[in-house]
Amino acid sequence: MADVVKASKRVALSENPTIWDFDFTNDLRTGESVSSATATHRPPSGSASTPTVGTIAANVVPVQLGALTVTGTHFLDVLATLVGGRKTLMRLEFDVTLP
Q: What pairs with residue 86 in β-bridges?
């Protein structure tokens, strides 16, 4: 099951790039850790994209979004592959506003 988080911070179109940290610690069983991750950004209109995933440290996956060109509610999904092959998903919902 995905963990869904609604960000309390609004992002302005002028705030580029934006980096979000996804902490998977609470999703892990004893002895598990995050071995890799992929991210997908879904804007309210237009095509989905694959943002940059940074270096994973202490089960935290940093994701950097480039220029945000559309206002409205955006979704950022991070699918983490854990040691042993199990996968877990986190979804961030955030609003983009005019500056």
A: none
Its pTM stands at 0.88
The second-level CATH assignment, the architecture, of 3-97 is Sandwich (2.60)
> Given phi > 0 = left and psi -120 to 50 = alpha, else beta, which region is 89?
beta
Distance, in Å, from the CA atom of 38 to the CA atom of 29, rounded to the nearest integer, reads 20
- Please report which confidence band the pLDDT of residue 2 belongs to, taking 50, 70 and 90 as the band edges: low
Domain ranges of the chain: 3-97
**b/e map of 12-48 (b: 16 or more CB within 10 Å)?**
eeeeeebebebebeebbeeebebeebebebbbeeeee
Q: Is 25 helix (H, G, I), strand (E, B) or coil?
A: helix
Q: For the purposes of burial, counting CB atoms within 10 Å of the CB of 65, is it exposed (0-12), middle (13-18) or buried (19 or more)?
A: buried
**Radius of gyration (C-alpha) of the chain in whole angstroms:** 14
